[in-house]
Design goal:
This protein has 318 residues and is mainly α. It contains eleven helices and three strands. Helix content is 76%, strand content 3%.
Amino acid sequence: MEGNATHHIASFFLVGIPGLENFHCWIGIPVCLLFVLTLLGNSIIITTVKLEPSLHQPMYFFLCMLAINDVCLTCSATLKMLGIFWFDAHWIDFDVCLTQMFFIHTLCIMESAILVAMAFDRFVAICIPLRYASILTTPMVIKIGLVGLSRAILMIMPCPVFIKRLLYYTKYVINHAYCEHMAVVKVASANTYVNRIYGILVAFSVAVFDIMLIATSYIKILQAVFQLSSQKARSKALGTCAAHVCTILAFYTPALFSFLTHRFGKNVSPSVHIIFAILYLLVSPTVNPLVYGVKTKQIRDRVLGLFFLRRFLNTKKH
């Protein structure tokens, strides 16, 4: 696996989950199930919002962004993982590995930005409802999406560039199921101080900045909600936020655990690290459409309506 000109390796060998190699074929089953549920659930969300005129609102445009982002994120990681688990397709080309790493980390930062945008949407809707239509116009929603995407690309672009400058001579085995930044950096035969510091700064700055914005939005929302005189109005306002809070917890909880154990959990088994890293990429995209499908009346009614309409038409045919 050596390149002739520079004697740098041409490919990496992704182990999968170290210590659990004998169970890879079984681990692939829940991974595949989560993958299928993610594709199905998010496709239903996107289709429902597109077909239902009453859902053509900023909140649901952000939800569609989240669904598209989740599908892309899941596809970028899961297809290679299933190749490893089921077909022993462990080898991955150097540049393909860097491309996968770029997409996974960019989409994770984009996911965080969308969650901030959704918190802002709820803040405007509940705290300054009279200005909602004038602030969150369709062009503004598009601009927010583009700013989030630009931030993600600009923050992650240096990672593959820095890795390209590292020397990879003999080590080519990556103890991971996908090309995660720190896992790729660890096998370099060079000083990786800059890569490590930059990786920590990006993860820390995104998490702190985004969580602070979300927390600020929800403190303001709760203050506004508890000032409402009507119990019904309070329940309705809190109900619209419940789905978003579930989404935030589903995304940040495994992310925070994975980050902390990776940096400080010296006694934590590598297999536990990697299982949480996989859950971080798969759980949130699977949970999001289920949460919004259950909590959002318009989506729930539309999906049930389509389901029962089909059953009714099938019954009439027979």
